Amino acid sequence: MNTTKIKICSSCESEFSCGDISVESKCWCNDYPPIFNLSEGADCLCPVCFKEACEDKIDAYIETITPKNALKNKAISLPQTTKLIEGIDYYIENGNMVFKTWYHLKRGTCCGNNCRHCPY
């Protein structure tokens, strides 16, 4: 039984579907990295605001990464998601997928291909 819930974004106040709340893994937000601790009273964000909040939080974290501390970063220890998200894991440039620093941090090691955004 699908128990989709309509919610109001706590940031932009737009309506959005919260997914199947009877099964935790069915909500669209579970495709994103679990990097937020919701404080009491906080509510969900719509897909657009949530993606923007994730990008902002990840970008702030990446600014603290150096080659020395990259091997012990928190991205490796997070539960892995199977879906790559444009803007978080990669961007498209001239028709090519370019992996961002977050993607490399999740992988945990350097592949040796001299990637543009390699943190190692």
From TrEMBL:
<protein>
    <recommendedName>
        <fullName>Cysteine-rich CWC</fullName>
    </recommendedName>
</protein>
<dbReference type="Pfam" id="PF17653">
    <property type="entry name" value="DUF5522"/>
</dbReference>
<dbReference type="InterPro" id="IPR040807">
    <property type="entry name" value="DUF5522"/>
</dbReference>
